[in-house]
């Protein structure tokens, strides 16, 4: 560990934008095929040197996770289900053909990083500390092959709501000519290559007065995700039952940690039917027209 001698000013927790601020330190660990994993290092956050021929820059050999830590009303700092993020990150690393790692050990390293920068965890119920573990192939050679070197690193920073509108309803563009994921692809893995191609579509949504895109799939226009997030519908189904429904984990949607948590909670409550199955825009429109759409 090398700690910074110059701590940066912290932003107002009530005026935070998502992803615009970073804490004083970062965690980084190098891997090579020849030597395996190096020692974890925590040091002051600074730009990193990377060869222009690094595989991540040419073939998107990279992935990331999105996690949060919260300051409770008791002033304790808690991470939200980090083991689930590590499970998903290791799965994505396997698909990206990057090295496996011990998720429990990485959580220990992240806890140390958060402990060092604990004052960056907002004293607020409206904001939190975002944690961004990232894994990139760094071998400086051109050629679509496995990277013989890689860097696993973690950034943290205080964030407010993801949407500029805050915790409020958003308007969505649903246009079936845009497709986010397809069977056999990588839509169910948290790779940066899934997100870059969606930026232009998000811009198109803004031009139409919408905050984000609602991703549809197939000739029957199945509802899959919204932007970079899982989607739920709460309605009274055609059988007259209250039902919480979301698209299944069939390769088209990301296995979200919040998604899993909501499903587990709802099934524990037992107050309504909980379903993971495809549902279509026609069914949603019919429910709206018949006043069966609740949320």
The rounded Rg comes to 21 Å
- The low-confidence parts are none
What's the multimeric state? single chain
- Mean pLDDT comes to 96
Q: What helical percentage do the residues reach?
A: 10-25%
Topology order in helix (H) and strand (E) letters: EEEHEEEHHEEEHEEEEEHEH
Overall 3D shape: globular
Head-to-tail CA distance between termini: 48 Å
Quantity of strands, as a count: 15
Biggest sheet: strands, sense, closure?
8 strands, antiparallel
Task: Please indicate the percent range of residues in DSSP E strands (runs of 2 or more).
Answer: 25-35%
Kindly name the structural category: alpha+beta
| Tally of DSSP helical segments | 6
Question: Would you write up a description of this structure?
Answer:
The protein is an alpha+beta fold and 295 residues long. It has six helices and 15 strands. The chain has helices at 55-59, 82-95, 103-116, 199-207, 257-269, 281-289, and strands spanning 25-32, 36-37, 41-44, 62-64, 67-71, 77-79, 128-137, 149-159, 172-173, 212-217, 222-226, 229-230, 232-236, 242-246, 273-276. Strands 1, 2, 3, 4, 5, 6, 7 and 8 form an eight-stranded antiparallel sheet that branches. It is globular, with a radius of gyration of 21 Å. The mean pLDDT is 96.
Write the layout of secondary structure elements.
Elements: E1 25-32, E2 36-37, E3 41-44, H1 55-59, E4 62-64, E5 67-71, E6 77-79, H2 82-95, H3 103-116, E7 128-137, E8 149-159, E9 172-173, H4 199-207, E10 212-217, E11 222-226, E12 229-230, E13 232-236, E14 242-246, H5 257-269, E15 273-276, H6 281-289
Parallel strand pairs: 9-10, 14-15
Antiparallel strand pairs: 1-2, 1-3, 1-8, 4-7, 5-6, 5-7, 7-8, 10-11, 11-12, 13-14
């Amino acid at each position: 560990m090398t700690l910074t001698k110059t701590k940066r000013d912290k932003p107002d927790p009530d005026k935070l934008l998502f992803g615009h601020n970073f804490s004083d330190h970062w965690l980084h660990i190098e891997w090579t095929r020849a030597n395996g994993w190096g020692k974890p290092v925590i040091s002051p956050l600074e730009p990193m040197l990377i060869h222009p021929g690094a595989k991540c820059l040419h073939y998107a050999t990279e992935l990331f996770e999105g996690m949060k830590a919260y300051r409770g009303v008791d002033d304790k700092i808690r991470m939200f289900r980090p083991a689930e993020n590590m499970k998903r990150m290791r799965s994505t690393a396997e698909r990206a053909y990057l090295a496996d790692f011990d998720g429990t050990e990485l959580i220990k390293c992240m806890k140390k990083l958060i402990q060092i920068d604990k004052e960056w965890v907002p004293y607020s119920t409206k904001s939190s500390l975002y944690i961004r573990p990232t894994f990139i192939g760094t071998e400086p050679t051109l050629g679509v092959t496995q990277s013989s070197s890689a860097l696993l690193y973690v950034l943290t920073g205080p964030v407010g709501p993801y949407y500029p509108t805050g915790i409020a309803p958003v308007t969505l563009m649903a246009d079936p000519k845009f497709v986010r994921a397809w069977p056999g692809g990588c839509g169910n893995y948290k790779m940066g290559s899934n997100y870059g191609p969606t930026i232009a579509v998000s811009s198109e949504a803004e031009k139409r007065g919408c905050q984000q895109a609602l991703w549809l799939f197939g000739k029957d226009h199945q509802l899959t995700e919204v932007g970079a997030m899982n989607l739920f519908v709460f309605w009274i189904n055609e059988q007259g039952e209250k039902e919480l429904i979301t698209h299944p984990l069939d390769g088209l949607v990301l296995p979200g940690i919040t998604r899993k948590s909501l499903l587990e909670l709802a099934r524990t409550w037992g107050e309504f039917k909980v379903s993971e199955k495809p549902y279509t825009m026609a069914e949603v429109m019919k429910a709206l027209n018949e006043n069966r759409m609740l949320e």
